[in-house]
């Protein structure tokens, strides 16, 4: 305490000077209109810069949440577009009916946002790891999609992580259909380019064109109908000549995949249980 008093006694004239300067500046800007306006403008400019920097920092740290919401929204809009396009191509164009169809298509669909923590595209059997597990509601055999289309199917689940078999895996087998046509086949990948796959077993009597969109058929218990797969780039005959093989340009870019959604369909479990019961019922009894 004594040292503090000695310091103040030795340098009191500097503190008095600063006090008088502060009072002078306040009086100058308060009682002179020109100086006051200059101070007000400068203060506003500085405050505006500070607020702009603060807003930029907040926006940067909120990008993760924004990307998750955009991924979910894109998936939602893709399914809406698929439902509307199919109905317009067929027979009815009543807008009221289309609105009801959109609502029915999305009913019961719940998505779990997740991020890709590891990924590969240069192997025959690629795998993806995401940062959500059974603690977050993820279960085996759930479908995984992103804002651009199909990604794959959940294969293994731990508490906080899951392994996904993507389209770029030789064991992947996803039921697909041609939008607006009704013909379906099965999506396979045989290696090579990561932006292309093949749809096999399309009937010979099917009518379609290059550029038509391929979507999930909804016939399996994994993906609902309408999730985009890609567009038709080329048509081949199957090895036995009884069906077509379609080369499809995938809508999902697996090389820069980051934000995905796990699809939790409320009716999936019921359909799977019914299918398992049917399979068990036809097994031979010994």
TrEMBL record:
Entry function: Involved in formation and maintenance of cell shape.
Gene name, Swiss-Prot/TrEMBL: mreC
Domain Rod shape-determining protein MreC beta-barrel core stretches: 116-263
Family: Belongs to the MreC family.
GO annotation terms (biological process): regulation of cell shape
Organism: Leyella lascolaii
One Pfam family here: MreC
A GO CC term attached to the entry: plasma membrane
Keywords assigned by UniProt, alphabetized: Cell shape, Membrane, Transmembrane, Transmembrane helix
Name the record gives this protein: Cell shape-determining protein MreC
Segments crossing the lipid bilayer: 12-31
Keyword Methyltransferase: no
Superkingdom as given in the UniProt entry: Bacteria
């Amino acid at each position: 305490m004594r040292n503090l008093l000695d310091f103040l006694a030795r340098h009191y004239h500097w503190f008095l000077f600063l006090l008088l300067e502060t009072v002078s500046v306040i009086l100058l800007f308060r009682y002179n209109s020109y100086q006051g306006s200059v101070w007000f403008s400068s203060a506003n400019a500085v405050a505006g810069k500070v607020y702009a920097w603060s807003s930029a920092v907040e926006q940067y740290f909120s990008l993760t949440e924004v990307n998750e919401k955009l991924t979910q929204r894109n998936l939602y809009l893709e399914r809406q577009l698929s439902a509307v396009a199919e109905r317009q191509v067929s027979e009815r164009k009543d807008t009221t009916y289309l609105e009801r169809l959109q609502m029915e298509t999305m009913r019961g669909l719940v998505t779990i946002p997740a991020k890709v923590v590891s990924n590969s595209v240069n192997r025959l059997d690629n795998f993806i790891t995401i940062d959500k597990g059974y603690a977050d509601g993820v279960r085996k055999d759930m479908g995984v999609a992103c804002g651009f289309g199909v990604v794959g199917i959940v294969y293994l689940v731990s508490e906080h992580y899951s392994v996904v078999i993507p389209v770029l895996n030789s064991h992947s087998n996803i039921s697909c259909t041609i939008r607006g046509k009704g013909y379906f086949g099965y999506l396979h990948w045989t290696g090579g380019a990561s932006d292309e796959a093949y749809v096999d077993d399309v009937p010979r009597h099917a009518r379609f064109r290059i550029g038509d969109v391929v979507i999930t058929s909804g016939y399996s218990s994994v993906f609902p109908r309408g999730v985009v797969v890609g567009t038709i780039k080329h048509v081949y005959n199957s090895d036995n000549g009884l069906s077509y093989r379609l080369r499809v340009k995938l809508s999902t870019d697996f090389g820069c995949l980051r934000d995905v959604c796990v699809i939790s369909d409320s009716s999936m479990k019921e359909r799977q249980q019914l299918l398992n019961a049917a399979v068990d019922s036809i097994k031979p009894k010994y």
